[in-house]
Amino acid sequence: MTKPRPKARSRSAAASAQAFSHEVSLDHLREQIDCIDQQLVNLLAQRRRVVEQVTAVKKQHDLPTFHPAREENLISARRAQASQAGLDPDYVEDLFRTVMRHSRVGQLNTLSRRSVRPGAKVLIVGGLGRMGGFFTDWLRQSDYDVRVLDRDDWPQVRSLAAGIDLCLLAVPIDVSPSVASQIGPHLPSACVLADITSLKRKPLEAMLKAHAGPVVGLHPLFGPATVTMDKQIVVVSPGRDPDRCQWLLDQLSLWGNVLVETPPAEHDEIMGIVQALRHFATFVFGQFLQERGVPIPRTLELSSPIYRLELAMVGRLFAQDPSLYAEIVFATPERLALLKDYLQSVQRNLSLVERGDKAEFIARFHKIADWFGPFSEQAMRESTFLVEKLVHRF
Amino acid sequence: MTKPRPKARSRSAAASAQAFSHEVSLDHLREQIDCIDQQLVNLLAQRRRVVEQVTAVKKQHDLPTFHPAREENLISARRAQASQAGLDPDYVEDLFRTVMRHSRVGQLNTLSRRSVRPGAKVLIVGGLGRMGGFFTDWLRQSDYDVRVLDRDDWPQVRSLAAGIDLCLLAVPIDVSPSVASQIGPHLPSACVLADITSLKRKPLEAMLKAHAGPVVGLHPLFGPATVTMDKQIVVVSPGRDPDRCQWLLDQLSLWGNVLVETPPAEHDEIMGIVQALRHFATFVFGQFLQERGVPIPRTLELSSPIYRLELAMVGRLFAQDPSLYAEIVFATPERLALLKDYLQSVQRNLSLVERGDKAEFIARFHKIADWFGPFSEQAMRESTFLVEKLVHRF
C-alpha cells in the first residue's frame, strides 16, 4: 500500500527509511483492525440470524418479544467480561444497548403485527388525516377489518358503522367533541368508542355522552412519522366499562407501546406545560431568530454541542405540521391563562436583569436547583450522554 | 436450565410438553447468542490492543491522531459488508462510530498530553477557579512549567511573571479587563497574553492596551467537567502578532480542540443569543416549573422522548454553577437590550393567541420554516437520532 516517495520531498535517506518502516507497521496494524472489523460484522450478521430463529419460535408459541430480565443479565455479563478484558464497561454496554435495541425492533416488526382480536371490525373517523392513516395502516397490517370515515363519507355512516367493534376518532382537537356526538348514535352498543386527541377532558365527556357502551380516551405521544411503536408512550384516560376496552389496550401493548393511565384533568394540565407552553416558547424563539436574521450556519460553527442540540429542538418544530401546533397552543382558555402567567414570569425575571440584581438571580437559581433535586444531576448525565452521541455522529 | 414444572399449574400433558420443547429451543438459541456476544467482546478487546500499538507507533513518530479519510473508508467498507450480509448499514455504521470514537478518545488521551513547546513557562491568572484549574492540569500534564496567580498572590506577581512565555487569564467576565491592565506591566515583551473569557470585545481591548506583545482572545465552548478535548470548539479572536501566538493554538489543536476564528464583535453578538438569551430562557422556564410546583416525575412519565430531552436541557442548567450563568446573562447592556427584545417577541406572539388568530400563527410558522430552510430537516434528523438513543438508553 505504501508507494515509493518522490525525491522532491527532500528527506534524508535515513529519515525516509524510518518513515517507510513506520508506515509499513501502521499499514500492517490497520490491516489487522480491518480484519477484526470484518469479523465483527460477520458476528453481527450471525447474531441476527439466531435472533430471527428466536423470533420464529416466539411467533409460533405466541410469546412476548420483551424479556427485560434477560436483557439486563446479558448486559451485566458483557460488562463483567469487558472489565476483565481491560475494556471500559460503559463503552461495551453502550454498544450492546444498540445491538439489543436493533434486535428488539426487528423482532417487534415481525411479532407485533398481530391482532389480539383478529378480524375485528374497526372504523377510523378521520382516517385520511396523518394520524388516522397511521392507525389505519397498523390495524390493517395486524389483521383487523378497517373502514375509514372521513369528511365526505357521512352519508354512508350507517353502513360503515354497522357491526363494528371499535370506533377510533382521529380528528383535530377542536372538532373532536362534535364528531363524537355525531357518530355516537350510529354505534352498536358493545362497540368501543375511543379517541386519540391530544386533549382528554372535553373529548372524553363528549364520547361518554354520545355513546352508552365502552369508552376510553387515548393520547399517543408520538407522531405519524414513527416507524416503531417500541416503548412509545400512550396516555390512557378510562371512560366507561374498562373490561370491554381492555382488548384495545392489549393491542397497543402488543405493538410495543407503554400505557400510562391518567385521569383526563391531570392529563390536560400536564400537557398544557409539556405541549402548549413548550411549543409556544419554541415557536417564539424560532421567530425571534428569524426576525433578527441570526445567521444559523455561523451560529452552529460557534456553538457547543449542547447549544447545537437546543437549536435542533427549535429547528425540528418547523419541519412539522403548523396546524397541529396551532391546535395545541390555541386549544383551551386554560392554556391561554398559562401562557399569560409565563409571560409575567419572563417579565419578572427580566426586571431582575434590568436592576442588575445578580445576588437575587443566584438565590433563585439555588432555590430552583433544590426544587429540581436529583433530577438536575440525572438531566446532566442524560444530556451529556446525548451530546457525546451528537459530537461523534454529526 | 428448564426446571420441571409443578403439577399445580394444571396444564395438560401435551401443552406442558410443547412448552418444554420451545423453552429448550429458546434456551439453546439464547446460548448461541451469548456465545456470539462473548466473541464480540473478545474481538473488541483484540481491537483495542491493536489500536494501542497504533498509538505507540504514532507517539514514537509524532504522527497525528486523526485520520478522517481512513475513518470514512472504514465506515464505507463496513456499510458495504453490512448490506451484503443483509444487515441495516445505518445500524452497523452507528456501532462503528461508537467504536471509533472510543478508539480516538483513547488515542487522544495518550497522544495529546504532549507539549508543542516543552518546558515553556505559563502563568495562569485565576488558576484556582474551575476553568483555571482545568487548564492548569492539562498544561502540567503536557510538560509545561505552570505557575498559578490567584487573588492572594498579587504581592508575588513580579517573581511569578518573570520569564513566562504565556499568561492565560481565567477570571470572571466582569473583572477580566481590569485584571488584564493589572498584569500587563509585569509581562516579558515576548510573552503571549491570552484570556478564556466568554466575552471577547472588552477583554481583548484591555489586553491589547495592557501589553505590547502578542495577544490572542480565546473562548473555549466547554466546561471544566469535560474529560476529553476531542472535537471541542475553541473560538479564537486574534489580537496582535498571530505568528508568535501560533504555538498556543497548535497546542489546543494537538489536544483535539477545533479552532474557529471569529472577530470579537461577531463573537459577542452570537454569544448574546447562544449563551445569554438561551440561558435566560432556560432559567425562566425552570423557575416557572418551580413556582407552579409542576410534578417533574409524573410529567416525565407523561412525556414523549423529545420533551424528556427538553426537560433534561432545563434540568442540567441547574446542576451547574449559578455565578457563571449570572455573569453571562448580566454581562453587557447589549445583552439586556436583547432580552428586552425577546420579551416583546413573547408578548406579540401571546397577543396572537389571545386574539385566537390561528391563521396568522400558521402564516408566521411557514415564514419561519422557510427562513430556517434545510436546517429544520437536518434538525429533525439529528434530534430524532438522539431521541432513539435516549429511548433505548434510559
Number of domains of chain A: 3
In CATH terms, the superfamily of the largest domain in chain A is NAD(P)-binding Rossmann-like Domain
Largest sheet of chain A: 7 strands, mixed
Strand content bin of chain A: 5-15%
Assembly state (oligomeric) = homodimer
Total count of strands of chain A: 7
Order of helices and strands of chain A: HHHEHEHEHEHEEHEHHHHHHH
Q: What topology, given as strand order, has the largest sheet of chain A? A: 2-1-3-4-5-6-7
What class, by secondary structure content of chain A? alpha/beta
User: What low-confidence regions of chain A span 5 or more consecutive residues with pLDDT below 50?
Assistant: 1-11
CATH topology of the largest domain in chain A: Rossmann fold
**CATH class category label of the largest domain in chain A:** Alpha Beta
Q: What is the global morphology of chain A?
A: globular
Spatial extent as radius of gyration of chain A: 28 Å
